[in-house]
Write a structure and sequence with these properties.
- It contains ten helices and 13 strands.
- It is α/β, with parallel strands linked by helices.
- It has a nine-stranded mixed sheet with strand order 5-4-1-6-11-8-12-10-9, sandwiched between helices. A two-stranded antiparallel ribbon has the order 2-3. The chain has a two-stranded antiparallel sheet with strand order 7-13.
- α3 runs antiparallel to α4.
- The longest helix is centred in the C-terminal third of the chain and has 14 residues.
- The termini are far apart.
- The model has no long low-confidence stretch (mean pLDDT 94).
């Protein structure tokens, strides 16, 4: 099944990356030679998405600009004959149709998804979080789309994490129904390890339906004043099934500084042009006893 629309919530302040994110959206911080959010959009496009709906906030317009044409820059590169860079710039500017909506208050992920409702229509849609970069030969979101196509139900991505780390994630209770697939029985947002129903953490990939939007619209704010997507999904269980699945590829938490650096290192080592020189640099540091 091809999903035509994907929502990218990018309205956050990026406080974990201050001061780097003070004037530059954290989503545009580069991993090797591409901004972090481009990896996520490319995953969606590879799965067939043609419209990217960015849920933005004040100071985030540079994200939209990145995926737009820059005719002055293209003319500059053309005049100088740098056709390789010209092709890269044109490809980024034409990979997806961009729609931007504003989240005027920081009221949580569920609230952010609701802001996209007026432009989503009545079709299923994907939600991809820019903090979760998943690199692999197959788009991770395609795995969710396949399960949605066979069940008609919303699908969320999960992965096993150490029990002590589950407090940083949403978490599911579920019954296995296939290889790496669970029917979700309940969801809990950031449970204490001792109270967590499993070590299956919810990762930032979702295929949702209009019914989930209806459940979200009826979801109140939590004790922190936010509307949580996890709680909206939990509420949607009363109206029909919800499935969870694992996904292909290597996942990096780009909202975590250490994992952001790991992503830069591992993706850099696989880069056809930069990989060899980066590997030599690491070997030199090892020889000096610095790593």
């Amino acid at each position: 099944m091809i999903l035509h629309r994907a929502v990218f919530p990018v309205a956050g302040f990026g406080t974990r990356f201050l001061p780097a994110s003070k004037a530059i959206p954290k989503e545009l911080l580069p991993i090797v030679d591409k901004p972090a959010v481009q990896y996520v959009v490319e995953e969606a496009v590879a799965a067939g998405v043609s419209t990217a709906i960015f849920v933005t906030a004040e100071g985030k317009s540079a994200i939209e600009d990145h995926f737009d044409r820059n005719l002055r820059l293209e003319a500059f590169l053309a005049e100088r004959g740098t056709t390789d860079l010209l092709e890269v710039v044109r490809q980024v500017g034409s990979m997806v149709q961009v729609v931007a909506v504003r989240q005027k208050e920081a009221l949580g992920l569920g609230h952010a998804v609701l802001q996209a409702a007026p432009v989503l229509g009545d079709e299923p849609f994907a939600v991809l979080l820019g903090d979760d970069i998943i690199v692999g030969d197959t788009p991770a979101i395609s795995r969710l789309a396949e399960i949605h196509a066979s069940t008609g139900a919303p699908v969320i991505a999960v992965m096993e994490v150490p029990r002590e780390d589950i407090q940083h994630y949403g978490c599911i209770a579920g019954e296995p129904v296939g290889d790496g697939v669970w029917r979700v029985l309940d969801l809990v947002e950031k449970p204490a390890p001792a109270q967590a129903p499993s070590n299956l953490a919810i990762i930032g990939r979702y295929v949702l339906t209009p019914a989930v939007l209806e459940a979200l619209a009826a979801t109140g704010r939590d004790t922190s004043g936010e509307i949580q997507l996890t709680e909206g999904l939990r509420r949607s269980l009363a109206g029909g099934p919800l499935f969870a699945c694992t996904f292909p590829g290597r996942r990096y938490d780009a909202g975590n500084k250490a994992d952001f650096l790991r992503a830069t290192l591992e993706i850099g080592l696989r880069h056809p042009e930069l990989g060899p020189s980066l590997r030599r640099a690491i070997e030199e540091l090892r020889a000096l006893g610095n790593c």
